[in-house]
Amino acid sequence: xxxxxxxxxxxxxxxxxxxxxxxxxxxxxxxxxxxxxxxxxxxxxxxxxxxxxxxxxxxxxxxxxxxxxxxxxxxxxxxxxxxxxxxxxxxxxxxxxxxxxxxxxxxxxxxxxxxxxxxxxxxxxxxxxxxxxxxxxxxxxxxxxxxxxxxxxxxxxxxxxxxxxxxxxxxxxxxxxxxxxxxxxxxxxxxxxxxxxxxxxxxxxxxxxxxxxxxxxxxxxxxxxxxxxxxxxxxxxxxxxxxxxxxxxxxxxx
Length: 254
Prior knowledge:
By secondary structure, this protein is α/β, with parallel strands linked by helices. The chain has a single domain, classed as TIM Barrel, CATH 3.20.20. The chain has ten helices and twelve strands. It has an eight-stranded parallel barrel with strand order 1-4-5-6-7-10-11-12, surrounded by eight helices. It is globular. It starts with a strand and ends in a 7-residue tail after the last helix. The mean pLDDT is about 95.
């Protein structure tokens, strides 16, 4: 299995931002320019997540997606505020390769099965924002929605199992506890999810060192590693990450 390296670009008011634990946002650049840069640098895929997308104009998001599609050659996923099958189809038509859904899927799980029947499972990514219920892994993790603001009472492992039955093709699992901290991913969370489902799992939330990306694969069993801060603030390049992972015996696309 070849591990994918995926920079994540959180977009707010037309700019890429990065925060810690889902808050304290800092401006890091233009989404189209950054996307083109990461394409040139050798990223395998990109993820663009529109923050507060429900309050932003849909037309603006669609225009941004179209510009990105013209500038890059690698696959990219778009998410944030997507709540209808029509919205999914609009973004795909604008040039996105995959669509990420979170809050709307929790509120209406049938949206997933309907979307799968219309656009195919391989074009649908379920984003899961997970928060520990306690310090011990056996206490589990809870699903949060609305940008991490709203607890749902839903158990993460039960939710991803149900989503797989509905036909979702991929999971983007973000630990709210480790997001933006640069202290490492929640490896127990990743491993628990990976052991629960057969579909690919993208690790998100907490990359700060090269070892963290390695451990997301070796300890967390992730199929892809997503990061933001280490790339946006040029702590590491895509090439440095790939060289390091390859030296650790992990198959990557060079």
